[in-house]
Design a protein that fits this description.
The chain has about 120 residues and is mainly β. The chain has one helix spanning about 105-115; strands spanning about 1-5, 15, 20-25, 30-35, 40-50, 55-60, 65-70, 75-80, 90. Helix content is about 10%, strand content about 40%. It comes from Leptospira interrogans str. 2002000626.
Length: about 120
């Protein structure tokens, strides 16, 4: 599946149960943030397209909470995972607000301050 996000897109941290996921960056730059179960940051993977000199492909085999922090105006990537999509195979942590929650802005600012 091809996905396009703008810089201001919030991707709520989530993990996929029982399936792997891979992404290949076509255009743009992104920080993929991996989280521990308690919400602390495990790792930040700086990715970009092939011309950026950054990692452009990543495969996540383990069920780890992750989110995307887009660093360019647009991010275009190819995501591959086993289908069909079943909502119950995606887990969202309590420590990350849902997309329509007013706390999203504060959550983003907090994570940004930790990864920059």
């Amino acid at each position: 599946m091809f996905i396009i996000h703008t810089r201001d897109c919030y991707v709520r941290p989530h993990k996929h149960l029982g399936k792997a996921e891979s992404m290949a960056i076509i255009e743009g730059e992104v920080d993929v943030v991996l989280f521990k179960e308690d919400g602390s940051i495990l790792r930040v993977i700086k990715m970009g397209d092939m011309d950026s000199g950054k990692l452009f492909y990543y495969r996540m085999s383990a069920p780890i909470y992750h989110s995307l922090f887009i660093r360019s105006e647009f991010l275009v990537f190819h995501e591959v995972t086993e289908g069909p999509f079943l909502r119950e195979q995606t887990s969202f942590p309590e420590w990350a607000p849902p997309e329509n929650n007013p706390e999203v802005k504060n959550f983003i600012l907090k994570i940004e301050s930790l990864i920059n």
